[in-house]
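thread: overnight batch results

M.L. [08:02]
morning all. the overnight job finished for the chain we discussed friday. pasting input first so we're all looking at the same thing
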Amino acid sequence: MFRRLTPLLLLAVVGLAACGGDDDGDSDKPQATAKAEQPAGGCQAAEQPNPKPDGGAKRPTAALDPSATYDVVLKTSCGDITIRLDQKTSPKTAASFAGLAKAGFFNGTVFHRIVPGFVIQGGDPTATGTGGPGYSTRDVPPRDATYTKGVVAMAKTQTEPPGTAGSQFYIVTAADAGLRPEYAVLGKVVKGQDAVDAIGELGDPASGEAGTPLQPVVIERATVRQS
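M.L. [08:03]
and the structure it wrote out:
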């Protein structure tokens, strides 16, 4: 199954790929030593990390404390981004994402797809748009779910049921992405929107919905904070 994220704009059925990691990958591999020549905005030049193996992550078994607040902080080459997890809407997705972050799954990965004025997408260990942790969770989003600026949701293929999630996530940079309520809502950016905006400018306009980055944007480390 081809797992690259390929939305068709607004209310079309979109393929915000992907979750699993159990399918064959494609040959669109990044160059391990590619380096940005012109840092943009608040971003620093970063080398493209070597891709990680697809799948193989351990499925988290522990639920999060429903009375606590959990933030996942992504330290990126464009600055820190703090995502507040939405346990109420997506308890399984939130627990999985936090577990993967604690295990270092996202460390040394990239935002492999950047579509200016729409979304930025990361969480694929292979950086091809086809990778994942090797398992999936499911939290069906509410019918009135909207994907507006700063909302963080999970990617899936067109053939997977609504709310299916693996490790690939996207952050909405549009005022309203116009997507149907099919994608598990992970949470919302509560700090670092300036970093999100800087990343959102680094997609090649000529690549259209493919969202080819103009330079590597690296997630150096993901940490979980509980309060």
